[in-house]
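Bench log, entry 3. Co-assembly request; chain sequences pasted below exactly as received.
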Amino acid sequence: MKKRIFYSKIAIWTFAFCPILRLLWLGLHDDLGANPVEFVERSTGTWALVFLLLSLVMTPIRLLTGQVWQIQLRRLLGLWMFAYACLHVTTYVWLDYGFYWPDIVKDIVKHPYVIVGFAAFMLTVPLAATSNQAMMKRLKSNWKRLHQLVYIIALLAILHFWWLVKKDVTEPFYYAIVLACLLSVRLYFKHFKRHGVSKSSQNRQLV
Amino acid sequence: MLIINPSKSNPADIQPSEITPREAFEDRRSWLKAAGFTLLSGAVLHSKFAQAATVTGGETKGSGILVGRANQGNGLTYKPAVVSGGKINGYVKTTYGAGEKLTKYEDVTTYNNYYEFGTDKSDPAQNSSFFKPRPWSISIDGEVKKPKTINIDDLMRLAPLEERIYRHRCVEAWSMVVPWIGLPLSELIKWAEPTGNAKYIEFISANDPQTMPGARVPILDWPYVEGLRMDEAMNPLTLLAVGLYGEVLPNQNGAPVRLVVPWKYGFKGAKAIVKIRFQEKMPLTTWAKTGPSEYGFYANVNPNVDHPRWTQSSEKRIGAGLFAGRVKTLMFNGYSEQVGQLYAGMDLKKFF
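Structure output for the full assembly:
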């Protein structure tokens, strides 16, 4: 089991570095398209969302298969989400607005899609800060309560994408469907399979 | 706008230095002064509206054809531009946009908003190869003496084609600098002979789901409709573009003919125009219909009127690179001097 976790983590690290390396490669070869800043913003934002959704896949796997080992990958996926969110925000503040704070503040305050995106990012900060073992122990049951913020972050992130798009919402719609599926598995088990779950789940503290 | 001297029998004999701005032409006294100055200095004169010109393209390069439209309307007095092998020969260079750094051809032709071919910026370049921009004709009706039709070749001969370098500002807060080739819309309007009731012009774009894959999807209410107030349409800046970078317009940029209104957001520039209708009432334009709180009929570039999605006070210049930052957006996209008077007394926050 330990080996399986180890190899999975290596796979995640490798996978997670690919988009960054691709951006660096394209950037160095001046191949980021006509609007390179938008390209980097889109890419880092999309990958933050992908890692967020991946981190939310671990619990449905447990609920559906009874397997629990993959729960231990959740933190790593969550932290990669945070890393891409940081890159996304850095791109916005630096490459897009050149640290010109008056415009940044105006942009955040005035535009609904930026407000929700900014809110989502702010909410990821306490999650990343409390992601280590020590904080987990210190916060006890509050840790779980705090980390339920991830559902709100996911909704805000989808909304951020949805409101950003001018008219064709196909792409954010796909992500919304994925999120809806992941949440409905949870709700289904919570309401209809409560007993079955508590019996099959031997590692409740990990949930 | 250039005015030629119709008495010259061979326009090719005329030197660019002889070109006289319209204002000067109309005012005899300053015309004499201007001509004297031109003779003395040998320089090209240009003023607010009148832009000096040289002819380029093919054989005629450097020979300096003087072109223009006789103000009496007595037939062609210039050598019309010729299309061969996708290139336009014999258009007039103007000083519009002199000193602006052009956006790369590659960026101008691969980063497009043209939803009839798809909603991604790269879609129009990729999905427009089946589109047939020729033969093409535009039908003109509504408040006109009598409905007319003009085909693309005749349209391109209606007036001398000019190259105009314009800033192009998208509502999405990015911008380009494009060397368009076209003719003033006012030339077509004069030819169309609108009646006194014509207060607005509606432009209707092609809607052919066979060759325009995006038009199969009801993302917008097809066909795409745009419009201008009559005085906006008659403004010398308003251009019917048939080419860019010396070539006929690529499909993804709105071939064979599109509207270019440089002081307004890019979506005002209807592409692949098939119908022009003069009307008394303000047309209901596609984006204004789709999102009335976001897109107005006027859609003038205005850094002081924000959009619910995009800050309009600054913009990203396409092709400037990853670390270039933003440039300040100018009122009317920097064309205040030419168009500001059109909106005197209007509340531009209300009529956005």
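Chain A has one domain: 2-202. Residues 197-207 of chain A have pLDDT under 50 and may be disordered.
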